[in-house]
Amino acid sequence: MSLQKIAIALGCAGCLIITAVSAKDILFPQMTPDKGTYEKPFGKLGKKTKAPWSATTLAAGVNGKPLKGKVVTVVGEIIDFSCYTQLGKHGTKHRDCGQKCLKNGQPIGLLAKDGTVYLLMDEEHDQRRDGLTTFRTAAIENMAYVMEVTGTLSEFKGLNALYVRGYLKK
Predict the structure, then answer these.
(1) Nearest to 139, CA basis, from 111, 93, 103, 94
(2) How far apart are CA 3 and CA 24, in angstroms?
């Protein structure tokens, strides 16, 4: 193969990669969610609250002040944050793998219709730290489903984190 053909092939491959990872697109859109749509989510996760942060989060903040946050509701597919951001994997075909990853501690994500990815976590600081929450279990059960998720959005240098309430162990 000539150098010219190799250069053309590499250029085409580069264009495909750039197209596949456009900032506001869902990677590999052919990998569709298992249940729910962005217009009609399968279910709801999270509890709507008036205050963005719980008492334990306020107490844990540096000088009693966590970062700014606002209560929002976002519709998106529950994903394994690590597999999506590393490989673009999501949807029905990735459900079993994603569930295994979440069971083994990989971060939980939410993939919005516009391609925005949110890191999902329990909001209650002390209970989260001490293993007294069940949000991870709810996320595992809803892996690859489009859900309506309510929580406190905290944005920091390009990272979108959504802290979800309502999953304290009883």
Answers:
(1) 103
(2) 34
What are the tokens at 6?
């190799």
CA distance 76 to 111: 5
11-60 pLDDT, tens digit each: 444 444 443 444 469 999 999 998 999 999 999 999 999 999 999 999 99
Torsions phi, psi for 168 (to 5 deg): -75, 140
**Phi, psi (5° rounding) for residue 119?**
-85, 125
- DSSP calls for 75-120: EEEEEEHHHHHHH---SGGGHHHHHHHHHTTPPEEEEETTS-EEEE
